[in-house]
From TrEMBL:
<comment type="similarity">
    <text>Belongs to the G-protein coupled receptor 1 family.</text>
</comment>
<feature type="transmembrane region" description="Helical">
    <location>
        <begin position="35"/>
        <end position="61"/>
    </location>
</feature>
<dbReference type="GO" id="GO:0007200">
    <property type="term" value="P:phospholipase C-activating G protein-coupled receptor signaling pathway"/>
</dbReference>
<dbReference type="GO" id="GO:0097003">
    <property type="term" value="F:adipokinetic hormone receptor activity"/>
</dbReference>
<dbReference type="GO" id="GO:0005886">
    <property type="term" value="C:plasma membrane"/>
</dbReference>
<dbReference type="Pfam" id="PF00001">
    <property type="entry name" value="7tm_1"/>
</dbReference>
<keyword id="KW-0325">Glycoprotein</keyword>
<feature type="domain" description="G-protein coupled receptors family 1 profile">
    <location>
        <begin position="54"/>
        <end position="303"/>
    </location>
</feature>
<keyword id="KW-0297">G-protein coupled receptor</keyword>
<feature type="transmembrane region" description="Helical">
    <location>
        <begin position="153"/>
        <end position="173"/>
    </location>
</feature>
<keyword id="KW-0472">Membrane</keyword>
<feature type="transmembrane region" description="Helical">
    <location>
        <begin position="113"/>
        <end position="132"/>
    </location>
</feature>
<feature type="transmembrane region" description="Helical">
    <location>
        <begin position="73"/>
        <end position="93"/>
    </location>
</feature>
<dbReference type="GO" id="GO:0007204">
    <property type="term" value="P:positive regulation of cytosolic calcium ion concentration"/>
</dbReference>
<dbReference type="GO" id="GO:0004875">
    <property type="term" value="F:complement receptor activity"/>
</dbReference>
<keyword id="KW-1133">Transmembrane helix</keyword>
<dbReference type="InterPro" id="IPR017452">
    <property type="entry name" value="GPCR_Rhodpsn_7TM"/>
</dbReference>
């Protein structure tokens, strides 16, 4: 029992976040943690059920049905980032549902964490790029006309994916598995037999993610959208009201989904200094992580489906697909009738000849 308690105390020194690693010690009170995990599991499943078809729809239309433009290219990459992340979400759901038992091996432990980090931050960066693109397009039309090209957008896209890979890269190195009484954990191992070095690594990675994955994108989006609101308000009050509500929804969605996640990430750093808030962290981190996951299923709704132009093109595309499908069915039915009629005539001729 003492060895088991020491093992859990050791695991408590590792990062819980995004991949919060260890369940509560069996020696501790379980009820708050279980409730938090059940709620987080419901949110994970909701993100998966809504996000997969939503982002798949955006990928289908922006990637295959519509003309390639800078705007559709941004939305395509945003949807791809969210879609890939959500595609791996069942592994994480299984991990939490099995009380943090990871039966999928070391490499999937590393890959799952890396892909989660990569695509979550790629998604955040593409939201930021979309904000900058809208700002430049409306406030600096001359610059947009000169530099806003599909080729330049492809270069920016490559840079976004590289930056997201750099932020997610440490997961490939630090992510490990540990077996305790036939229970395998997938966790961040920052120790390296040196607690001071582990603490520094944890602090650095947490603040890098906060500054680059939250603070900078949030400030950028807020400034861009504030400038856009002021610009639109000068031109048309009617348009301003509708556009302001749309922009407010976009910024609030990002703020609501990501703020708790980063707050708990930073608060988590205090567990290395004595940690009196383990129960709150164990309840808050899974819930805040689930809320951040939900942003991936909200993006196609808030950033694409909210557009009147997209809705019109979506309806037109669906109508075109239905028309083509019905035409194929009609043609196949006509061909079938012709074949049956031909067979009937042949059988009639054969009977007459006999």
């Amino acid at each position: 029992m003492e060895d088991l308690e020491e093992t859990f105390e050791e695991l408590e020194n590792y990062s819980y976040s995004l991949d919060y690693s260890s369940p509560a010690s069996p020696l501790e009170e379980k009820a708050p943690l279980e409730v938090a995990h059940w709620v987080s599991l419901v949110l994970y499943c909701l993100a998966f059920v809504l996000g997969i078809p939503g982002n798949a729809t955006v990928i289908w239309f922006t990637g295959f049905k519509w003309k390639k433009t800078v705007t559709t290219f941004w939305f395509l990459n945003l949807a791809v980032a969210d879609f890939i992340f959500l595609l791996f979400l069942p592994l994480y759901i299984s991990y939490v549902a099995m009380n943090f038992h990871w039966p999928f091996g070391l490499w999937l432990c590393k890959a799952n964490s890396f892909i989660a980090q990569l695509n979550m931050f790629a998604s955040v960066f593409f939201l930021t790029v979309i904000s900058l693109d809208r700002y430049i397009q409306l406030v600096h039309p001359v610059v947009a006309h000169r530099h806003r090209t599909l080729r330049n957008s492809q270069i920016v896209t490559v840079l976004v994916w590289l930056l997201a890979s750099l932020i997610g890269g440490p997961s490939l190195y630090f992510r490990e598995t540990m077996e305790v009484n036939n229970h395998i954990f997938c966790y961040h191992n920052f120790h390296e037999h040196d607690s001071d070095l582990a603490l520094k690594r944890h602090h650095v990675l947490t603040w890098v993610k906060f500054v680059n994955g939250y603070l900078t994108p949030l400030l950028t989006m807020s400034i861009c959208y504030l400038c856009l609101i002021l610009k639109v308000k000068k031109q048309s009050i009617l348009v301003s009201n509708r556009y302001s509500l749309t922009i407010l929804a976009l910024v609030l969605a990002f703020l609501i989904c990501w703020t708790p996640y980063h707050i708990f990430n930073i608060w988590e750093l205090t567990i290395h200094h004595g940690g009196y808030y383990h129960q709150v962290l164990r309840a808050g981190l899974p819930l805040s992580t689930a809320l951040a996951f939900l942003n991936s299923c909200l993006n196609p709704i808030l950033y694409v489906l909210i557009s009147k132009k997209f809705q019109a093109r979506f309806r037109a595309s669906v109508a075109e697909i239905l028309k083509y499908t019905l035409w194929e069915v009609s043609c196949s039915g006509t061909v079938g009738e012709q074949l049956r009629s031909s067979e009937t005539k042949k059988s009639g001729l054969q009977e007459t000849a006999q």
